[in-house]
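Notebook entry, structure prediction.
Reason for the run: the old model in the group folder had no record of what sequence produced it. Starting over properly, with the input documented here first.
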Amino acid sequence: MAHSTCRLCKAALTHTFLDLGVSPLANSFLTADQRDRMEPFYPLHAYVCDACLLIQLGEYESPQQIFSHYLYASSYSSSWLKHAEAYVEMAIERFQLNSESQVIEVASNDGYLLQYFHQRSIQTLGIEPASNVAELAKEKGIPTRTAFFGERLAKQLVQEGYQADLLIANNVLAHVPDLHDFAAGLKLLLQPNGVLTIEFPHLLELLREQQFDTIYHEHFSYFSLRTAQKLLAEHGLKVVDVDQIPTHGGSLRLVIKHVEDSAEVTTRVAEILQLEHENGVDERSTYTQFSQQIGLRRREVLSFFTYVQAMGKSIVGYGAPAKGNTFLNYCGISKDWLPFTVDQSPHKQHLYLPGTRIPIKHPDEIKRTNPDYVLILPWNLKQEIMESHAYIRDWGGQFVVLIPHAQVL
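New structure, fully documented this time:
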């Protein structure tokens, strides 16, 4: 059942941010024998809270159903691994970590980030609810607790002697249905003088770049600095610094301490809040106008595919990201228009996209078929994909992204 009250402030949710119709769970890929079965679709309807302006979706499936077995593994993107290694180098220097330090990551996935701390002989612990990807982390030598994170698990870990000098919660906040339980757990697990970093896609960029495809059922909430600050403050945590980073189409990295800590707040925090204010992030009218813009984007997408067919050109997809499934289902793109997509992850190859039933193949299929266009569904990784698959230029092929606007690259 969907939430009718705000996850952050408990006010009633009455105003639509964006209604994308109905959609399957974004990572509910199908096997060949599941294609003849009925597939569940759920309302993909995002609301904006009148009181605190947090954007949020209803909870139609439990986190256990969505995340206990998960097909997303971070290590299949080379640019993402570079981002993780750069983060580790920054953190060791900036937060003065050494072999005596304890680093704990919530939603540690396949150990893509903790492996770099481990290689530098820093104590690590991963917390990851998906048992299949947790096993991949353990194979890398990363101690990993297979569990959902919240106040109860944090208390248990503290009793076992764990507290984090550096606590990491990158790209997980949006996936949390019970925000206050999660934040309470972070507060408990952080050493009195420890530091917490949280990265999340910045709502400001979703608005400015019309990134409607980042709305899917795994994401329960969409944060600005303003709303993240409010949540953390209610649990005795303060944002002392913030960086704008390019990941996921534009993210924020918050540096957070206990309110009791004497660390001063940098001017960057006020600067980002001012930037949000200048772009209407703290005005409800900004959110109510958004859906009109997305209707125009869908017509632009359909015009492009109509052009491709009318010109007798061929087009295939690259990637099978969750955002791609929102994009294809909302725009009504079937396998008649996009006969297949490819993905580097062997865990996704030979499966079918939810809803559209578009097959996922090995990247070599691009070389075999020589398409005129390759549509990059994970547009946030377009540079990496264009560089590693530049060979399509040999036969005159071109790359395409359709978010925020149709671009042939």
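Summary: The mean pLDDT is 92.
The old model has been moved to the deprecated folder.
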